[in-house]
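Per reviewer request, we include the raw input and output of the structure prediction for the construct analysed in the revised manuscript.
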Amino acid sequence: MEQLNLDIFLELLTKLRDGIITSSNDVTNLFKLEKMADDMDQAVADNSAALASKLYFRQATFLKRIEASLKKIEDGTYGECICCGAEISIKRLLARPTALLCIYCKEEQESVEQKEKDKLKGGFLADME
């Protein structure tokens, strides 16, 4: 990948990382629950905390992928498909800067996953009859 493109992705990934770190402080504030006056308020607070927990773990996972992508930029392997070694298109990387697979390998992966889901679904439905 050209250095200019690497610089663009380095800046993009760094901004994404910094944004997640900043927003994670907001999410952790949602974990702080107080005893509410009535059950309805408590239920809403509990639901908010559950959603905040999901968001926190989702952000943590994305942050790990961003850090891995930044490391790939450092070691010169950013933009290479981990499956076939082909270059991942700039268009795909702009849409998903942490992509590890080229579009062809990703489509193949999704096809295999769908077949597995269909197989499990078919087996489950067959067992129900």
